[in-house]
Specification:
Strand order of the largest sheet: 1-2
Shape: globular
Strand content: 5-15%
Oligomer: single chain
Order of helices and strands: HEHEH
Largest sheet: 2 strands, parallel
Number of helices: 3
Radius of gyration: 14 Å
Structural class: mainly alpha
Helix content: 25-40%
Length: 71
């Protein structure tokens, strides 16, 4: 599962964000076969820093506006 890494979670927390989100089911990376046993990104953001995590966002239109025009 693609997603944020522990270093990304620390980077976000250091910058004082109040929420972070993604269009995936699990906000953080989950290696194949690992399941949801440990979720260190959730622990860092939610438990240690009070950062809200939002999953299943619809980000396609935002991504389209953020891309530079193709030539």
């Amino acid at each position: 599962m693609p997603g944020a890494t522990v270093s990304a979670a620390r980077w976000l927390a250091e910058r004082g964000v109040i929420a972070a989100g993604a269009d995936t089911t699990a906000f953080e990376q989950i290696t194949p076969g690992a399941g949801h046993r440990t979720l260190p990104v959730h622990r860092i953001l939610l438990v240690e820093h009070g950062v809200h995590i939002i999953e299943h966002l619809t980000l396609e239109s935002l991504a389209d506006t953020a891309r530079p025009p193709r030539s």
